[in-house]
Amino acid sequence: MRQFPEVEKHIGLYHKAWREYRRTEELGDKILYDLCTKEFPGHLDKRQVYTKVWFIGYTYSAGLSRQIGKNVNSAVVSALVIAEKTDQGISNIIDTVAEIAEPLSQDKLALIVESHEKLLQIIEERVGVRLVSFTSKYLHFHHPYPSPVPLYDRVSQMTLRWLYGLAEYNYRRFVDRFWQLYEYLLNRGVDATVKGVDRFLLRLSVQSDFKKWLTSLGKRNKG
């Protein structure tokens, strides 16, 4: 079993991060899950899709406005609605993931990555930008709580780079490393979940060891 010195050093933070999440953010997340899976599960009504895109994009800082301008919500909404009317079907992609439940396995994650790539391509074809982070979050919240879809964002992937020392990740590589950390924690007796690992990565990102590594990485890149 591969060793993770930094994880071993900070493993107690997993439980602390999870307690903080349960105390502060879990209820808000459940509202967002219900919005996407119960209140507005479809992808044809532009008002409903816009509401979901807006909440996901701003609640989870998906960076849409920074990437393609202030009209991003409308552009992504149009892409999703148009695709739902075709054979591609957003619902078909999401339904592929709907029955997946934890604990994760490599087969389950392969389906998640495949669904993410299909949705990513649909949006990119119509918007012109690969919205990897937003796509992972849109797919994540269209699964009933707790969702098995790993959330990709800049902080999480940089934290995994710190642990693994590898180049920048696409979603497939990110999920592969996420899975290895998830499995490692389970083998260490931690009751790991996708949401728990997500919060753990964010918690690790505020540790002084990570910040020192990030600073040194920035200096190397400038050099």
Structure, described:
Helix content is 72%, strand content 0%. It has helices at residues 5-10, 12-24, 26-39, 46-59, 64-68, 72-84, 90-98, 106-127, 132-141, 154-164, 171-187, 194-204, 208-222. The chain has 2 domains: 5-24 and 152-222; 26-141, no CATH class. Helix 4 (46-59) crosses helix 9 and helix 6 (72-84) crosses helix 8. The chain is an all-alpha fold and 223 residues long.
Q: What labels describe this entry?
A:
223 residues, mainly alpha, 2 domains, globular
Summarize this entry quickly.
This protein is mainly α and 223 residues long. It has 13 helices and no strands.
Mean of residue pLDDT values: 89
Major sheet size, sense and barrel closure:
none
The computed structural class is mainly alpha
DSSP strand count: 0
The end-to-end span amounts to 35 Å
Q: H/E order of the elements?
A: HHHHHHHHHHHHH
Proportion in β-strands = under 5%
Number of helices: 13
| Rounded radius of gyration (Å) | 18 Å
Assembly state: single chain
Summed up, the domain count is: 2
What's the helix and strand layout?
Blueprint lengths: L4 H6 L1 H13 L1 H14 L6 H14 L4 H5 L3 H13 L5 H9 L7 H22 L4 H10 L12 H11 L6 H17 L6 H11 L3 H15 L1
Helix pairs in contact: 2-12, 4-6, 4-9, 6-8, 7-8, 8-9, 8-11, 10-12
